[in-house]
Write a structure and sequence with these properties.
The protein has two helices and nine strands; from the N terminus they run ββββαββββαβ. It is mainly β. 13% of the residues lie in helices and 42% in strands.
Length: 156
């Protein structure tokens, strides 16, 4: 696993603020402002990859976690670069529903970037997942911020 000693995460701009990450999550930032139903957020998680695991494994697990809440969670688009000679990445856009009340659901989307972390110890293999979560209709409004968030991650 990677912890906050292994990397530095920078906010994309002053429209975001650091938040306390829930137990088991590496990082969380929330969009500043008032939102009627859902506050967009940026997050980071890491997972140790087993000897036979590829980046496909944490990407599949991320989708599976969403399917625990919504059986119809689906990958809208996906691109894979799992070249062993490079860092390797999977980028996927996922949409799912979340229940606000018995009569009211909200369509959310995530932009997920899963990348292999470059570590000095080549025996260890770790994947980092950077995520933007927002209402599906608004996800493109925050895409530039997500790109800046990704560029702002520095490995130590």
């Amino acid at each position: 696993m990677v912890d906050d000693q292994d990397l530095q995460i920078n906010l994309p701009n002053d429209q975001w603020e650091h938040a306390t990450a829930p137990e088991g999550q590496l990082y969380l930032a929330m969009r500043r402002g008032e939102f009627e139903r859902f506050t967009p957020n940026l997050s980071a998680d890491s997972v140790e990859l087993g000897p036979d695991e590829t980046l496909e494994d944490p990407a599949y697990e991320a989708l599976n976690r969403l399917r625990r809440f919504d059986d119809d969670a689906r990958v809208v688009s996906r691109s894979v670069n799992d070249d062993v000679d490079e860092i390797g990445t999977i980028f996927q856009h996922v949409e799912f529903n979340t229940e606000l009340s018995e009569e009211n659901t909200l369509r959310l989307a995530q932009l997920q970037l899963i990348l292999r972390v470059p570590l000095p110890d080549e025996e260890r293999r770790v994947a980092l997942m950077l995520t933007l979560t927002a209402e599906a209709a608004d996800i493109s409004d925050y895409a530039d911020d997500f790109e800046a968030f990704v560029r702002g991650v520095e490995f130590r």
